[in-house]
Specification:
The structure holds two protein chains of two kinds. Chain A has helices at residues 15-27, 40-48, 73-82, 100-108, 122-137; strands at 7-11, 34-37, 60-64, 90-95, 113-116. By secondary structure, chain A is of the alpha/beta class. Chain B is of the alpha+beta class. The chains are: A alpha/beta, B alpha+beta.
Chain lengths: 141, 666
């Protein structure tokens, strides 16, 4: 049990998906702080407190989409795994891509989980449920 | 395509060093090698001509010389060997014959020697031989004269001997009667005496005187006459002996004896009575004396004869010696000539050896040149480039588009290399465009799907938020909206799959269809309603499992989807076609009408409206592309007018090809 609430860093470019995620948060009554970045670069800036972003403080969990402009999910993962300050971050990939290659690439970069966003938002709901429990049970770095 | 062609033209210049086609190069190489071989043959022939010439020289010159020398020697020896015949010539006719023969021999020899001189033999030996022969013939000439003289002497001696013998005989004949007479007288007187003695009282004195007379005169007379006869007979013996004697000492001895006998005869003759007899004896003695002591007395003659014979023998011996020398010289000359022949042969042999060396050298040079020519022009140039080109095209075929086309030339091979460059750029182009397509399809599916998802989500939220306020019609509309969105997603997904067919990496492993087909069936068909029948044992082989499974899933899925009854039977069978298997999937559904049997394989084609049967219409298109990308085929067999059911047959390779290609496609 952490004393502080986990911050969720959502890195997603699609408006509707974001809306969907926020709806689920609301439904599940998840009140944790949420930071939104629209792509990998913004995500990094948020983690480092650059470019006008407030630095996201630990503990945090990153919810990462893969298909994004400027810097996609895999590239973002490469970057944070290189950075000594950021390499221990817990990342859940939430993506539309069921491509084996993408999944493999994500796990090669040590994601905590890989969730495929099916169209019905139930799956996202299940995923968020799981993550909600996850951060309460697990000790984060 | 035109772009590629123009790029190809750009490469066409090639390198300008050879301007000759491959065939021409090979032909030139071949001609070059043949020419050198010909050259070798020519040199060989020329050498042998030279040798032949040398050998001819041996035969034309040296051999005749050798034969000539041989002949000279033989002729010389023959002449010498014929000396006994010469010596045996007892009369002028024979002697003449021999002389002629000798002259002929001399002429022959002169000619032989001249011939040898003409042939170029100038040896001192030849001069020596000539000298030998000169001496031999000179001796022979002498011998001829001597033989003539000998014959004369013999004749004279014979004549004289005959005379002497005749004289002696005559003497004896003369004496004979007187001896008889005297003997008779003696006998008569002795008889008388005997008679007288036998008479008693004879006058002893008279008788004694008579007896003394008998003893002295008569007896003595007989004795003397007998002695003369004896001596006369001795003369005959002496002559006989003289005829036989060969030594001058013998002659001298006989002469002495004969003299003595003559002397005795003379003395005895002095005392002979009667006077007439004495005169006859005297005459005979005169004759005999003349024969014995005269100027041409028999002894002189005999001595002369002995001398002549001696000379003849000497000359014969000289000739024999000379003949030996001649033989030696002839042998030496033969040896000399032999050296000459050997020299010529040696020359010929040397030429032969030289020719052989030359031939070997030429052959070696020809061989080396041939090797050089073959290596440079054929192997390196042609074969080397062919091999490189083959390696390049092999690499390209295997999908390595980065291989360097480093063959050039303005002959056929250069043209081939240019063409291969075009292929390579085409292949690279193809790969690039394939990869572009892949990327496009990937991106398309994501980027096209995303808004759809958004639409769907928003629709859901609207539904949720306005659930109470929404009328049933609106709710219906929302449902339709969802289903259309889903359809679009399915279509997109199928399109993506279609674009991927034949290009994706597939796991190639051992697949047992007897397990896979029932698994696929369980996946797509409701278990209670449909039944799967496997007609014969299906094969288990190594192939790409995913594409094959997809094909079965599509076909069996279609069979279920399009069935008009609640349930039915699906059959799966196989046939061995050699390099491929032919599988069949048969159902007992409504069948497909003939006019639609082609359409069903086209993209997005469904036979029922999408509201009746949910389907993107891509299934069979994907199956067909899948099968055909392996070089196989799929056919449909159905005649609903006659009988229910549809049979799909498709072939699949036993050995997974395209593995290398697919691996390099990414």
């Amino acid at each position: 049990m952490s004393s502080r609430d986990v911050t969720f860093l959502l890195i997603e470019d699609d408006d509707v998906d974001l809306m969907g995620m926020q709806r689920v948060f609301k439904q599940l009554k998840i009140a944790n702080p949420i930071v939104v970045a629209r792509n990998g670069l913004e995500g990094l800036a948020a983690l480092r407190g650059e470019d006008g972003f407030d630095k996201v403080e630990k503990p945090y969990i990153i919810l990462l989409d893969l298909n994004m402009p400027k810097m996609n999910g895999i590239e973002f993962l490469d970057e944070i795994r290189k950075d000594p300050m950021l390499r221990t971050a817990v990342v859940f990939v939430l993506t539309t891509s069921s491509h084996d290659q993408d999944r493999l690439s994500a796990y090669e970069r040590h994601v905590a989980g890989y969730v495929v966003k099916a169209k019905p938002l139930e799956s996202f709901s299940d995923a968020m449920n799981m993550i909600d429990r996850y951060w309460r049970v697990v000790e984060l770095p | 395509m035109t772009e590629a062609a123009s790029k190809g033209d750009q490469f066409k210049s090639g390198s300008p060093d050879h301007r000759v086609g491959v065939a021409a190069k090979l032909r030139n190489a071949f001609i070059g090698v043949s020419l050198f071989s010909l050259l070798s043959a020519v040199v060989g022939i020329v050498s042998f001509q030279v040798i032949e010439g040398a050998q001819d020289q041996v035969l034309d010159r040296s051999l005749p010389v050798a034969l000539g020398a041989e002949r000279v020697a033989n002729q010389g020896l023959t002449v010498v060997a014929a000396t006994p015949a010469l010596l045996a010539a007892g009369n002028d006719a024979d002697l003449q014959r021999e002389q002629e023969r000798i002259l002929r021999a001399r002429e022959d020899l002169r000619a032989s020697i001249a011939e040898m001189r003409r042939l170029g033999v100038n040896s001192e030996l030849l001069a020596a031989i000539e000298a030998d022969l000169g001496i031999v013939f000179a001796n022979l000439e002498l011998q001829v004269e001597l033989v003539r003289a000998r014959n004369n002497h013999r004749a004279w001696i014979k004549a004289t001997a005959v005379k002497v013998l005749a004289d002696a005989e005559q003497l004896i004949e003369t004496l004979k009667p007187r001896i008889v007479e005297a003997s008779t007288d003696l006998l008569a007187k002795s008889d008388e005496i005997r008679e007288e003695l036998s008479r008693p009282g004879a006058a002893e004195r008279q008788t004694f005187l008579a007896f003394e007379e008998l003893a002295d005169v008569d007896f003595y007379e007989v004795e003397r006459l007998t002695a003369i006869r004896f001596r006369a007979e001795n003369l005959i013996n002496h002559v006989d002996k003289l005829l036989l004697t060969v030594s001058p000492d013998g002659v001298a001895a006989i002469r002495n004896e004969l003299s003595l006998d003559l002397h005795s005869l003379a003395r005895s003759a002095l005392e002979t009575n009667p006077a007439s007899l004495r005169a006859k004896i005297g005459r005979s003695l005169q004759e005999l004396s003349g024969a014995a002591h005269g100027s041409t007395n028999i002894f002189e003659l005999k001595l002369g004869l002995i001398g002549i014979n001696g000379q003849l023998d000497q000359l014969s011996a000289k000739n024999r010696d000379r003949a030996d020398k001649l033989q030696t010289h002839a042998d030496q000359l033969l040896a000399e000539v032999g050296f000459l022949i050997e020299g010529s042969s040696e020359q010929a042999r040397e030429t032969l050896a030289l020719g052989r060396v030359l031939l070997v050298a030429i052959a070696a040079v020809a061989f080396l040149v041939a090797i050089y020519v073959v290596r440079k022009f054929v192997l390196k140039d042609v074969a080397g480039r062919i091999r490189r080109l083959a390696s390049i095209t092999r690499d390209l075929a295997q999908g390595n588009v980065d291989v360097a086309v480093d063959v050039s030339g303005s002959d056929e091979l250069g043209e081939m290399a240019d063409a291969v460059r075009v292929f390579k750029s085409n292949a690279a182009e193809l790969r690039r465009s394939n990869s572009e397509l892949e990327q496009f399809a990937y991106v398309a599916s994501h980027d096209l799907k995303a808004p759809l998802r958004g639409v769907s989500n928003l629709a859901s939220w609207i539904e949720q938020d306005l659930e109470d306020a929404m009328g049933s019609e609106s709710k219906n509309h929302m449902a339709l909206l969802h289903s259309r969105v889903k359809r679009m997603e399915t279509l997109l997904e199928d399109l993506l799959q279609y674009s991927r067919v034949g290009r994706e990496e597939t796991e190639v492993r051992s697949v047992d269809l007897n397990k896979l087909v029932p698994d696929v069936f369980r996946l797509v068909a409701p278990p209670d309603e449909f039944r799967l029948t496997i007609l014969e044992p299906l094969p288990s082989f190594v192939t790409a499992s995913a594409p094959l499974e997809k094909v079965f899933r599509n076909l069996i899925g279609n069979a279920v989807k399009h069935h008009d009854f609640e349930g039915g039977t699906i059959e799966v069978g196989v046939r061995d076609l050699g390099p491929d298997y032919e599988f069949l999937v048969r159902d007992d559904g409504p069948g497909i009408q003939m006019q639609f049997q082609e359409r069903i394989f086209a993209m997005f084609q469904t036979l029922k409206s999408r509201d009746e049967v949910e389907g993107s219409g891509m299934g069979l298109a994907i199956v067909k592309k899948s099968v055909e990308s392996l070089g196989c085929a799929i056919v449909v067999d159905s005649n609903p007018a006659a009988v229910r059911g549809t049979t799909f047959r498709f072939s699949w390779p036993k050995r997974w090809r395209g593995q290398d290609f697919a691996a390099h496609a990414a």
